[in-house]
Amino acid sequence: MTLQRNQIAAFVILCSLLSIPAFSQEPQPAEQPVSALLKTLLSRDTSDAEWKAAEKRFLELPAKDALRALFPEVAKGTPGGFTQTIYNCYEPLRDRRVPGWGEFCVVHWLWCKELTCPTKSEEVVNTLLELWAQPLSFHGQVVLLQGLCGRLEAEERMAALFRDSAADARLRTEAGVCLLRQDGKKYHREVVELAEQSPPDLRERLFDELASPPHRRTSGIDPAVVRMGFALLFERLEKHERAKQHGQAISEYGQFLYANRLNVYLGTTFEPDWKLPIYSGDQGKEQWYHDTVTGALEWWSEHKHEYAD
Question: Which member of 36, 223, 271, 282 has the lowest number of beta carbons within 10 Å of its beta carbon?
Answer without folding.
Answer: 282
